[in-house]
Amino acid sequence: MEENGTEEAKLLMLKIAAILDEARTSYATHNRKLKELSLLRSKSSSLSHFFSAFSKTLTPLFDFQRRLASADRVVSFVSAFASAASDEFLDHFLKFLLAAATASNKTARFRACQIVSEIILRLPDDAEVSNELWDEVIEWMMVRVRDKIPVVRTFAVRALSRFVNDSVNSDILDLLLEVLPLEQNADVRKMIMLSLPPSTATSQVIIDCTLDVSETVRKAAYCVLANKFPLQSLSIKLRTVILRRGLADRSVAVSRECFKLLKDEWLAKCCNGDPLKLLKYLDVETYESVSESVMEALLKAGLVKIQNGASIQQCISSNGDRIEGDSVYCPPSIQLMEAEAALYWRTVCQHLQSEAHAKGSDAAATTGTEAEVYAAEASDKNDLLEKILPTTVSEYIELVRAHTNAGSNHRFASRQLLLLGAMFDFSDASNRKAAGAFLHELICKFPEHEDDDEGNIVVLGDGLSFGGDNDWAEAVASFARKVHAAPGEFEEVVLAIIEELAQPCKERTANHVQWMHTLSLTGLLLKNAKSLRVLRGKAIEPDELLQTLLLPGTKQSHLDVQRIAVRCLGLFGLLERKPSAELLKQLRISYIKGPHSISIEACKALIDLVMWYGPHEVDKVLELNIPGLNSEKTTFCPVNFSDSEEVLDVETLDILYGGFEIDDWASPLPTNEDECVHAILGEGFAKILLLSDNYPSLPVSLHPVILSKLLYLHFSDVSEHLHR
């Protein structure tokens, strides 16, 4: 009887082996072979008899290390059979696999976790498995998530992915969130991320994966975001983070995956293909650069279709007269744009213009039919651009004026429209005259300000840039250069306005708002001028500008006036052939005496001048008693900031380096958490060290001193909040 049983078992094993052997050759045989294996099992004398033969036949797979497609086909086949089999067989098989999952043999653990994960993902929702067995499976898979073998961890996570949504098994989610940031293997990180359910707790974790070092993980992150997180479920900040990182990713495959999310999910499904509606989800005023990137990507892909004759001209109606006394508000002939529409039309027009230029260049570079095709395409782009833009310069100016007069709520739209000025032709005298008059009006307009609770006038904005906003200042400068394009004309016009605005400052009758307005315009001019030579012979000479406006500005009682004046001194010094001693002395005094906000601007200016002229040249202008190149100097001289007279005789780099010793200068400004003297010094000395070949007067022996200070600053708890 025993011999008959043994022979029967051997025969059964041979039959099972033959089925498994055929199943490993192709997935196409699986359905047929599943029926054969089920029939074989039904004919078996008992379940235990069949399972014994089945498990013994399968055992060699648990010693087979190589990841071959044939082995994976066997895994898929036996998983399909187990998930379709009766509950009793499944219980036996899962217990068999759990025993293998606890083995010391790494291949056995890998195959066990692989098959368990396959079975779990294949099981129907109504499969009846005892809670005790499931608890055991989950427990051991959670143990294997910390396995030392990456492939074991991968399949353990895959096995748990079906349970991670279950509120009863919240510890699974906690485990995955715990191990993800510590995981060294990219495949395991990818599997963990793919297993995470959509929730507020996991959205930030998945978005963090868009910065992963592995391209496959980053690509998978955008795939997960597309499939699990609708646009409306994410905050505006998270939406913009996703797009900023994805569209600019160094990997083409990753950027394509992000664009697919943008195009197929957010634009098509959430916004019905309307880019304007999509922009409303991005807060274009706060995240302008991201919105620009989105529009550029959509325009490049040809997904922005201008329909029903939509254009900027629709905001300007030919009928309707301006109401008397209503000039400071929007005239009835003008319809004010929303921020999204203004950015939309600005990017569309810039794209059309660049496309027209590119096609025109292609036409010029080729001949025959090809050139005609390119020329026709360029003509089409220009025609469409003309249909979108206001028909005349006067209409364009009225449109921009209406938005600028409408107040701060339309400041963003005003700037977008101002940037469109680059597309108009101001060579005609009448156009230039109208634009010049509007520009004068724009520049002479005082910055927005309001009264605080104590009745003091507070200027809105950053307190440094013209108009209180660097982007606005750049837009005004760009428009001014377009209108006054002749050599030296821009400087002549702006200097004439400065001379006009500076009169109350010279007479000491100006309040701090007038001072700030005049100095911020001066800063705009100095920032855009190529040298002081261009400014000579104009309404106000550079020396007069320095003596009657910039230096007196640093001595004003109002701190915001001092800040702008110090900023202007730094810009002025960069335009000189060599920095003037008086200017350098004032910057050193402002740096030493502060307060903090003033010291920051003086620190920036001094570092810029040291890097531009070299530390030795700067000190030579000050006529300090400095020996020649001191190659023996191994440390920076200590500086006593409380003794102003002593400090003024110290080398500039010593003064700057001494700022590291002032503890109060490590704290950021309340208005800007990234700005403090230590942050500026750290960035400045890093640049000086990086470009040290340009500064032979800086002893090589000081390089380790600077580097050690930078390392200390980088790892210091005090400076960990400083992005610089």
TrEMBL record:
Coiled coil: none annotated. It is found in: Chromosome. SUPFAM superfamilies: ARM repeat (SSF48371). Keywords: Cell cycle, Cell division, Chromosome, DNA condensation, Mitosis. InterPro entries: ARM-like, ARM-type_fold, CND3, Cnd3_C. One of its GO terms (cellular component) is condensed chromosome. It comes from the Eukaryota. PANTHER family: CONDENSIN COMPLEX SUBUNIT 3, CONDENSIN COMPLEX SUBUNIT 3-RELATED. This is Nuclear condensin complex subunit 3 C-terminal domain-containing protein. The lineage of its organism: Eukaryota, Viridiplantae, Streptophyta, Embryophyta, Tracheophyta.
